[in-house]
């Protein structure tokens, strides 16, 4: 079976107020999500490691969660400001 991953929206320009990105997948056995951040011209920075269902982690205006039934891991930006402007990546262990 073909495994699929999808990020929505594909890109996001942060405005004032809360916003977020969602990472969805078609894997049935994945139990680990990793979120990374990359500032322009810099290396990847590890943000969150989510290893079990219903895990929620918070760090500096960002909240990531993992729900195995929804097959996804949303990253919420709760307090948008210019310091959060970066490229965000999510990886899943399949």
UniProtKB/TrEMBL annotation:
Gene Ontology cellular component terms for the protein in this record: T cell receptor complex
Gene3D superfamilies recorded: Immunoglobulins
Keyword Kinase: no
Subcellular location: Cell membrane
Source superkingdom: Eukaryota
InterPro entries according to UniProt: Ig-like_dom_sf, Ig-like_fold, TCR_alpha_variable
Swiss-Prot/TrEMBL keywords: Adaptive immunity, Cell membrane, Disulfide bond, Glycoprotein, Immunity, Membrane, Signal, T cell receptor
PANTHER family the UniProt entry points to: IG-LIKE DOMAIN-CONTAINING PROTEIN-RELATED, T CELL RECEPTOR ALPHA VARIABLE 39
Name by which UniProt lists this protein: Ig-like domain-containing protein
Gene source species: Bos indicus x Bos taurus (Hybrid cattle)
């Amino acid at each position: 079976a073909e495994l699929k991953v999808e990020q929505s929206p594909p890109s996001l320009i942060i405005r004032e107020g809360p916003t977020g990105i969602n990472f969805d997948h078609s894997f049935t056995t994945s139990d680990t999500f990793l979120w990374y951040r990359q500032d322009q011209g810099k290396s990847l920075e590890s943000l969150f490691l989510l290893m079990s269902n219903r895990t929620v982690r918070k760090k500096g205006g960002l909240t990531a969660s993992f729900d195995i039934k929804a097959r996804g891991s949303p990253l919420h930006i709760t307090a948008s400001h210019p310091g959060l402007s970066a490229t965000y990546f999510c990886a899943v262990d399949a």
